[in-house]
Amino acid sequence: MIKELIKDISYDKISLDQALTRAKLIAYKIDNGEFISWINHELNGYDDSSPVPEYRKFYCDIFAKVENPYYGSRLTPIDLTEINKQVDINLYSYIHRSGILNIEKNLIEAQNANEQYGYIDFPIEIVKNVRDIFQNNDISAVRKRIQFGNLNNILNVAKQRLLDTLLELNKAFPDLEDEYMNDDKKDAASQIITTNIYGNNASSNVGVGKDFTQGISNSYMEKVEQVLHDLRQLGVPKEDISELEDIINNEPDKNKLGAKFLAWSSALMTKAVEKGIDVKVPEVLDAIQNLVV
User: Fold this and answer.
1) CA torsion, points 293, 159, 50, 189, in degrees to nearest 10?
2) Which pLDDT score, from 0 to 100, does residue 289 have?
3) SS in 3 state form for the chain?
4) Would you call 287 exposed, middle or buried from its count of C-beta atoms within 10 A (0-12, 13-18, 19+)?
5) What is the pLDDT of residue 160?
6) What is the C-alpha radius of gyration for the chain, rounded to an integer number of angstroms?
7) What is the pLDDT of residues 101-130, one digit of tens each?
8) What are phi and psi of 59, to 5 degrees?
9) What confidence score (pLDDT) does residue 222 get?
10) What's the whole-model pTM score?
């Protein structure tokens, strides 16, 4: 049973949901509550009272949905650092509690739709606070952006932890199906499970929250130069380009640029309308968004 399961997992012959379901038989065979609990949570999801593994926690960018009768609807990156200091939860982190089957289905749907991101809306109270802070009533929603690559990471880490556990169990108990599990053997199995499932040997943890900082790297500055070039081609005046360059150069933390980009974009839209400047505003907003993607 365990040898066949190891082979099926290693060669991707079965889904992770199927692998966990079959592994449950082994968990009950060795009578290990921790292994049973981890498998059940991965299969059925983690409720609000259950501790969630670190690989299910990750950093998110935050966007405002801005709706304007002249320019339509756009998602614009924003900085909620100040609000984040005032609330009990971390606005920039997301904990994915769904069962593995749901995650696998989400990824298949995303791949079929050729989507890289998903979005989760904040409650209306956050939206009202954001409108007040940015003095912009065109903001209709505030959303966390979830990279589907993070869901792949959940599957990969869970799969490797399961596989490592099964390999260690098979090594320690080569005749597991027929063995009688006395207390000493159960203790040995428990140590294997604790090390592989709950140990500190995971190498895929993603930084979460305010400590997740992205400085401006050389590759990012190359992207900045490209965006500035595109903005010139779109008719953005030189003085506005210079103002944007000053914003970028004076803020080394990319995560804090969103609010300043939003203010700059809003000022440019107002200027274009009031002075009749020929600026392709929708394309400009798309270009600016590239600076934080």
Assistant:
1) -150
2) 66
3) CHHHHHHHHHCCCCCHHHHHHHHHHHHHHCCCHHHHHHHHHHHHCCCCCCCCCHHHEEECEEEEEEEECCCEEEEEECCCHHHHHHCCCCCCEEECCCCHHHHHHHHHHHHHCCCCEEEEECCHHHHHHHHHHHCCCCEEEEEEEEEHHHHHHHHHHHHHHHHHHHHHHHHHCCCCCCCCCCHHHHHHHHHHHHHHHCCCCCCCCCCCHHHCCCECCHHHHHHHHHHHHHHHHCCCCHHHHHHHHHHHHCCCEHHHHHHHHHHHHHHHHHHHHHHCCCCCHHHHHHHHHCCCC
4) buried
5) 94
6) 25
7) 999 999 999 999 999 999 999 999 889 988
8) -80, 145
9) 72
10) 0.65
The 10 Å CB-count burial string (b at 16+, else e) for 159-176 is bbbbbbbbbbbbeebeeb
Three-state secondary structure of 247-260: HHHCCCEHHHHHHH
Going from the C-alpha of 271 to that of each of 77, 135, 259, 263, 266, the distances in angstroms are: 21, 17, 18, 12, 9
pLDDT of residue 101: 95
CA-to-CA dists, residue 209 to 141, 197, 214, 228, 232, angstroms: 21, 24, 12, 30, 35
Which pLDDT tens digit goes with each residue over 195-248? 878 764 443 333 333 333 334 455 566 778 888 888 888 888 888 888 888 888
Domain ranges for the chain, please list them.
2-55+152-197, 213-293
| Residue spans of the chain under pLDDT 50 | 200-216, 293
Nearest Cα to Cα of residue 63 among 91, 89, 82, 88? 91
**For residues 27 and 36, is the Cβ–Cβ distance under 8 A?**
yes
Structure tokens that stand for 105 in this block: 């289905």
